[in-house]
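The following block was generated as part of the benchmark described in Methods. Ligand: magnesium ion.
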Amino acid sequence: MATVAVGGPQAVSRVGRFFQPVAGRPLDRLPENRILLGRWQTAAETGEELIVCRRETTVEIHCHGGHAAAQVVIESLASAGCQVLPWQQVLAKTGQDPITIEATRALAQAVTQRTAAILLDQRQGALRRALDQIARCLAAGDAATAGPMLEQLLQAARWGPYLIRPFRVVICGLPNAGKSSLINALAGYPRALVSQLPGTTRDVLTARIALDGWGVELADTAGLRKPSDPIEWAGIEQAQAHGSYADLVVLVFDRSRAWSEQAERVYRNFPDALVTHNKIDLPGSGIGNRPEGILTSALSGQGIDRLAAAILRRLVPRPPGPREAIPFTRRQGELLAQTKEAVEHRRFATATDRLRRIYAREPLHADEHEVFENPP
Ligand SMILES: Nc1nc2c(ncn2[C@@H]2O[C@H](COP(=O)(O)OP(=O)(O)OP(=O)(O)O)[C@@H](O)[C@H]2O)c(=O)[nH]1
Ligand SMILES: [Mg+2]
């Protein structure tokens, strides 16, 4: 669904030029706050069926969510003299407090239902309540209580970016270890190209999954070896570049092959990686001096649940509790850090000012509502 809101004294008459209610009577004679079915009639065509609802000051048009369908409605209204504004801009002018505005904006980008629920909690006051408590401590000059509360909020702020973008997990390893197969097994559908020829994956392919309600993007990479083929080499460089911006690297080794010097080198290159030994359905070549790791078979599905659980534990070691306060924009995080620093220096007036900026209803600067940034 797409929703187009039309506001202003002419809203009903402008919408009425195009909206043909099935009820037959014109829009301005139909009651407010009722869902009205009709068609969007332009000079060029009888458009699609849609729903209109008259409110006291606005008219809402709910149409098909496809870009083209919404565009027809928007363009016809523009041709009738309406000014087209993106919803973010409209939202900023509603006079709501900054957290509500930021949460509404972020909700449109929530990656999963779980992260949407967390953002909804913030919109409904979880963050505001925590800030209120801190503000009361600051008013009483109680740095001993305010300090740890601020610290806790700053810790929680690390989840903020992942409410609107997935965690990035890069799967690396030697050629033919089963990286692409493992991605397919984790995703539950064949996303990545699998073949018995080493060096099959050349570009970085990604698959989006959800682990316990957190968005996770799995990036498949070319096997890490020095090949003669320049195209493959480009893929490997990409893999390494990907590894450096990943939230987690999963290293995949072939358990049916002996632990080699090459494997050891790859392992040493990624000291923080989660290690997986794959192909456990095949006769193993012994444990050898292999590092510890999760045992999987992408083919039989053995150990895939354990791998998924291990990835989740590494990404979200302590999930936020129900209705926990989570700062979710960079602006909030920065202001909290400034508040904490001011508290540490016992500058309570500055601390109060910085804290207030996070959620004060009236913007301190005229353009403050315009400069909200999403998390990095
Ligand atoms: N027996 C067995 N075979 C597997 C397993 N995982 C992958 N394979 C096979 O190993 C071969 C290589 O698998 P891929 O998933 O393409 O391996 P890769 O690491 O992505 O390979 P490159 O992209 O070439 O680096 C394919 O023939 C797979 O079917 C497994 O757990 N058990
Ligand atoms: Mg592959």
